[in-house]
Amino acid sequence: MQDDTNLFSQLNDRSREVFRQVVEGYLESGEPVGSRTLTRTLSEKVSAATIRNVMNDLEYLGLLDSPHVSAGRVPTQMGLRMFVDGLLEVRDLDTNDRSRIDATLGTNTDDVGNLLDRVGSALSGVTRGASLVLTPKHEAPIRHIEFVSLAPTRALVVLVFDDGQVENRVFTPPPGMTPSAMREAANFLNAIVEGRTLSDMRRDVAKDISARRQEIDSLAHEMVESGLAVWAEESDRSERLIVRGRANLLGEDVPDEDLERIRSLFDDLERKRDIAEFLELTEDGEGVRIFIGSENKLFSLSGSSLVVSPYMNSDRKIIGAVGVIGPTRLNYGRIVPIVDYTAQLVGKLLSDRK
């Protein structure tokens, strides 16, 4: 298969115009676009037969498809990708859309969790799609660590952050753990982790334990490692995926086969399947990215599109992402500036909290 750039360069002006109008008509109506419709809208006056020939050529190239015999054409996934990359005209953010987002996110008085919940609701409401918000990891410096014995085979590790947030998790301590060894493990950690973030601690504490092995006995050493492992488990990441607007994709006019695919998508999202990869969708840097259908495995079965953008903290580090899910016939020209603006606004609001 030829790449989109080479394919696009092979099209003459008439073919590009027919292709563009088919895609734009489909994105607007969701219906196949026929040759008779194009005879009324093309800038060049040509016959319906000529347009059909052009559409046949575009279909042969894999850019258009015929859902039914004698019906109009719709863009293929490859056609949508070529349109998005080469012909999409991204509008300026609509004033009404901006006002609705500002009204929802304009206050910055509650905690980060509530703020990002409102981000998801705002995006879903404005776009009439489903929204995704990946919340940042908690990266405040650590103030204090404590180990609490619950039973011979159960212990609690408590982590207190400088911003006042407290996290605690239950884990299995080493066999034979004594109260004195538990206190020694906590004292050792508190002497070296103050002011470090959780990421710093995961990276550096192992080195400190190795260098200062004589200062901590073997049982307390195991307690430290067991307690830290609770936070190091990749299966229990501290990011949270907020999904809003499920009903927007499950309307009455959705075919049964599409309903099942969309339900499967939301089941995956609610189980946080592939959440570790979600932020990586934006790893190429700033700006909005568009994933169509099977271009991302999380959305391949549902046939949906994802428009996603990262948001950054005051150090210009990507800490989360916001996005909109919808059918492949999303109004990309409108959705892209909404997602872009929301991501920038979230980054600013979170940075201003510092």
UniProtKB/TrEMBL annotation:
Gene Ontology MF: a single term: DNA binding
Keywords annotated in UniProt: Repressor, Stress response, Transcription, Transcription regulation
Record domain Heat-inducible transcription repressor HrcA C-terminal: where: 115-336
Entry annotated with the keyword Repressor: yes
UniProt cross-references to Gene3D superfamilies, sorted A to Z: 3.30.450.40, Heat-inducible transcription repressor hrca homolog, domain 3, Winged helix-like DNA-binding domain superfamily/Winged helix DNA-binding domain
Record carries keyword Cytoplasm: no
Function description: Negative regulator of class I heat shock genes (grpE-dnaK-dnaJ and groELS operons). Prevents heat-shock induction of these operons.
NCBIfam families the UniProt entry points to: hrcA (TIGR00331)
Family: Belongs to the HrcA family.
Protein name listed in UniProt: Heat-inducible transcription repressor HrcA
Organism field: Roseivivax halotolerans
